[in-house]
Amino acid sequence: MRRDYFTIDIRPEPGDDGIPTIAIEYTGPSGGLRDRLTETAEGTLDSSELDVAFRHQADSEGGVLSLTDRMTGEFIFEAAAAVEAVDALVSAAQRHDGDGEYEVRLTDSDGKSLVYEKAVLLVYDEDGNLLRQRSLIPGSVEL
Predict the structure, then answer these.
(1) Distances (CA, A) of 35 to 29, 45, 60, 86
(2) Residues whose CB is less than 8 angstroms from the CB of residue 58 and which lie 6 or more positions away in sequence, other chains included
(3) CA 138 and chain centroid, separation
């Protein structure tokens, strides 16, 4: 999926539901995002089946936020995001809850939203090295 189909709004301050949010709006072809999130004819992937990661880009104030299928490793999508906004989300999530809960809210081109509650957000530098101190990694997760 093309990165320009996505607009990301990172809201580090807790919203109505009380936790920081990554709000992602998809404006591509109708059904495209939902098709990527559909595992079977019965339904979409749930929160435990999705991974969220952010990779810094060299010589840039931005990076790439990605959502992947945990079981297959297949990218659902990648989209541009600001480093500063991701850092603010990680800090806010850690302040909100010791394990760092946040939510990912996906809105498709038909205006339908899916919300995923997450506790892990892996942040990598431009060389692909995990930045543990800038990531959300609950104590119960072993890497």
Answers:
(1) 11, 10, 32, 27
(2) 126
(3) 16
pLDDT in tens, 53-93: 999 998 888 999 999 999 889 999 999 999 999 999 999 88
Q: Using one digit for the tens of pLDDT, what is the confidence trace for 103-127?
A: 999 999 989 999 999 999 999 999 9
Question: What is the separation of C-alpha 66 from the centre of its chain, rounded to a whole number of angstroms?
Answer: 6
d(CA 74, CA 76): 6
Distance CA 79, CA 4 (A): 7
- 8 Å CB contact between 5 and 27: yes
Contact 77, 83 (CB under 8 A): no
